[in-house]
C-alpha cells in the first residue's frame, strides 16, 4: 500500500481537463451511436450539428490539454513493473493521438460531404478538405473506426486504473481525483 503522504497529484487544471474531456468523449461516442440509428429527419440533422460542435470543442480542449501536459510535469510515477509502465505510456500516447484523429476525421468527412461546420450555429469553420463525394465515402468509415478504437482504449484505460486502485491498492485514482489526497 502507498502511504497518503506519498500520493502525488496532477494539477487542478489537468484534473478538470481530464474529467471534462472524459465526459465529453463518452457522451459524444454514445450520442454518435444514437444519432446514426435515427431515420432522416430535421431532428437527426440537428443532432449531427450538435455532434460536430462537441467534436470541435473536444478538439480544442484536447489541444489545450496537450499543451498543459507538455508544460507541466505529471506526478511521480506509481511503482509498477516496467512492462506496465510501458503499456500505460503506450495507451496514453494512443489516447492523445485519437483525441485529435477522431474529430479531425469527422471534420474531414463533413467537409468532403459538403456539410460545413458552423460552430454553435454562428461561427463558420473553414472546410478541412475540399468537397469530394468519393473522398467523403472513403473518410466516413474512418471516423467510426477511430471512434471505436478510442472507446476500446478508454475502456482499457479505465480497467487499468481500477486494477491499480482496487487490486494493487496503490491509490492511483487519487492522482486524478478532486479534493485532497
What features would you describe in this structure?
Strands 1-2 form a two-stranded antiparallel ribbon. Residues 1-5 have low confidence and may be disordered. α1 packs antiparallel against α2. The protein contains 4 helices and 2 strands. The protein has a single domain (4-176), classed as Fumarate Reductase Cytochrome B subunit (Up-down Bundle), CATH 1.20.950. It is elongated, with a radius of gyration of 19 Å. The protein has helices at residues 12-36, 42-71, 82-112, 133-168, and strands at residues 118-119, 123-124. It has 181 residues and is mainly alpha-helical. 67% of the residues lie in helices and 2% in strands.
Write the layout of secondary structure elements.
Elements lengths: L11 H25 L5 H30 L10 H31 L5 E2 L3 E2 L8 H36 L13
Antiparallel strand pairs: 1-2
Helix pairs in contact: 1-2, 2-3, 3-4
